[in-house]
Design brief:
The structure holds two protein chains of two kinds. Chain A contains nine helices and no strands. Chain A is mostly helical. Chain A has one domain. The longest helix of chain A is centred in the middle third of the chain and has 39 residues. Chain A is globular, with a radius of gyration of 21 Å. Chain A starts with 5 loop residues before the first helix and ends with a helix. Chain B is α/β, with parallel strands linked by helices. Chain B folds into two domains: about 170 residues, P-loop containing nucleotide triphosphate hydrolases (Rossmann fold); about 70 residues, no CATH class. In chain B, strand 7, helix 6 and strand 8 form a beta-alpha-beta unit. In chain B, helix 4 packs across helix 5. Chain B is globular, with a radius of gyration of 18 Å. The model of chain B has no long low-confidence stretch (mean pLDDT about 95). The chains are: A mainly alpha, B alpha/beta. The complex binds adenosine-5'-diphosphate and magnesium ion (MG). Adenosine-5'-diphosphate (ADP) binds next to strand 2 and helix 1 of chain B.
Chain lengths: ~260, ~250
């Protein structure tokens, strides 16, 4: 079929993609609408903050510290080729804060949080719990989706800030421990070099990635197919979509912030 | 009074409902019988708007159920789902009192808990299950918690999807009596799906049999044995041979 009518196939795929984007956008607008209109479900929101934020700290910290350390080693080795070893603190800082901090935290959140939100909501759908919510006069968009997306928007920038700091710390440990940097000078160089824009861009990315991660979990969960297979597909799809969208959004945001 | 007029629903090319006509007078108990997979659950869900019919009209007290204030509409209903559909992140009593803890029927926590424990007692569960989680209960106990949740806010209209499936005969008897009591004492309108002929006779004012996407037969429960309908006869006697195909 594809061989016989390549244009037709292309057209169909394009239409399907556009329709999917439309559905996701509509879903996002509905979620935002429910965030600002009462009733608000405080308990659900608090649990989402705990799950997305607090319980993600270990994985974010470990990812960031190893990445910061590896970054310092590579920059040192690369810089040595043209006698520029001294740039390690500056490049580690910029690399972590502008790119690696937000992207790594975003991807870890996609792996850890998007998947669990999608699996949980999909299971609720499959076991008729979503239907039960409706019959108990509770809107699932308000009760399940809005608190999670709001928590993602608020707490992931904080995780990114933590990741940035721990990543820089990882670089500092390696640089001062085995590359012979002076601890105080390293820190001073880092602080002097970073600009407000670097930090703003980092937190903005965190906010948007957190929103994407939570939204994709909810969207795929709410639209899950039937049975265990439906839950599996929803979970897989949500993580794929969140990861790709986070990387695409990162590219666009980097362009918007730094290519002026 | 609930009325369904030519209701149709298909999932892909699986035409589940093909023109269902049925009316349930206020304050009466209608029991729907029919083979597995004939669309009984889909029928109940259509009335509640959980499934959107492809064609036909469903009215409650003469008003189309798809129009008007949805919250006010749903506040009149209670529903027991076939699988219980308990929220597994909440304890048993929080499940039962779900409606009483939020929204327009919200009341103090202590009072909501008290009502929940009273409803649990009515379905034969002791107060010590109140603080457990649904996953810690047996299937039959989960079913009864679902039943307690359905009746907690004392709705006018209650739907029971296979309320006695998975219960022992004595507990099934208790649940049958409870459903009958709710209709007689609270004046509720009930619609029950069941395969259990003992239940049918204990609960029903009227019986309707769903087969092949339409109501094959409907009438008062006293006429069930003399329906003259070969489908109904085969179903209530549980014969493997007859007009209803049983694929083996
Ligand atoms: N959400 C759905 N999507 C697709 N098919 C469905 C859905 N709900 C029910 N069905 C199909 O409709 C038919 C009737 O289902 P159901 O009403 O659950 O039967 P029962 O009479 O046993 O309660 C079945 O074939 C089922 O597979
Ligand atoms: Mg069913």
């Amino acid at each position: 079929m594809i061989l016989l009518s390549p244009l037709g196939a292309l057209g169909r795929a394009t239409l399907q993609t556009l329709a999917a984007i439309g559905r996701v956008a509509l879903f996002a607008f509905q979620a935002i609408g429910h965030m600002v209109r009462p009733p608000f479900y405080g308990r659900e929101f608090a649990l989402a903050l705990l799950n997305i934020g607090w319980l993600s700290l270990p994985v974010v910290g470990l990812t960031a510290i190893f990445t910061g350390g590896a970054l310092a080693l590579q920059i040192y080795a690369g810089g040595a080729r043209f006698n520029a070893e001294a740039v390690v603190p500056q490049i580690v800082a910029i690399g972590m804060v502008r790119e690696l901090g937000p992207v790594l935290v975003g991807l870890m959140i996609a792996a850890r949080v998007t998947s669990s939100i999608a699996a949980e909501i999909a299971t609720m759908k499959v076991t008729e719990q979503i239907d039960a919510l409706v019959t108990l006069s509770t809107n699932p968009m308000k009760y399940l989706v809005a608190p999670r997306v709001l928590a993602g928007l608020i707490v992931v920038p904080l995780l990114v800030a933590v990741g940035d700091v721990i990543g820089i710390f990882g670089g500092w440990v390696v640089a001062t421990g085995s590359l012979g940097f002076n601890p105080a000078t390293y820190l001073k160089n880092t602080v002097d070099f970073l600009e407000l824009l670097d930090i703003v861009s980092s937190l903005t990315k965190g906010c948007i990635f957190g929103g994407i991660a939570a939204l994709m979990g909810c969207y795929f969960g709410m639209n899950s197919g039937r049975g265990a297979q439906g839950v599996g597909k929803a979970t897989k799809g949500s993580v794929e979509a969140a990861a790709v969208l986070i990387l695409a959004a990162n590219f666009l945001l980097t362009g918007a912030f730094f290519s002026l | 009074m609930i009325e369904l007029i030519s209701v149709e629903k298909a999932f892909g090319d699986n035409h589940v409902l093909r023109g269902v006509n049925l009316s349930i007078p206020k304050g009466t108990s209608m029991v729907i019988i029919g083979g597995s997979g004939t669309g009984k659950s889909v029928l109940l869900k259509s009335v509640l708007g959980l499934v959107r019919p492809d064609a036909g009209v469903i009215t409650l007290d003469g008003k189309d159920v798809t129009t008007g204030d949805r919250d006010a509409f749903l506040a009149r209903f209670g529903m027991l789902f076939q699988g219980g559909a308990l929220f597994d992140s909440l304890t048993v009593w929080q499940n039962v009192a779900f409606r009483l803890l939020r929204g327009s029927l919200k009341r103090p926590v202590a009072e909501a808990r008290e009502i929940a424990i009273e409803k649990l007692r009515r379905v034969g569960l002791k107060p010590d299950v109140a603080d457990r989680f649904p996953a810690e209960l047996s299937g039959g106990m989960q079913k009864r918690v679902g039943l307690a949740r359905a009746i907690a806010a004392e709705p006018e209209i209650i739907f029971f999807d296979e309320p006695t499936t998975g219960l022992d005969p004595i507990m099934a008897g208790v649940i049958n009596e409870l459903i009958r009591e709710i209709v007689d004492e609270m004046g509720a309108t009930a619609m029950t799906i069941t395969h259990d002929m003992t239940s049918v006779r204990a609960i029903a004012d009227h019986v309707a049999m769903l087969h092949d996407g339409v109501i094959q037969w409907t009438g008062p429960v006293r006429d069930l044995d003399q329906s003259g309908d070969p489908f109904v006869d085969q179903f209530i006697s549980g014969r493997a041979t007859g007009p209803i195909e049983s694929v083996r």
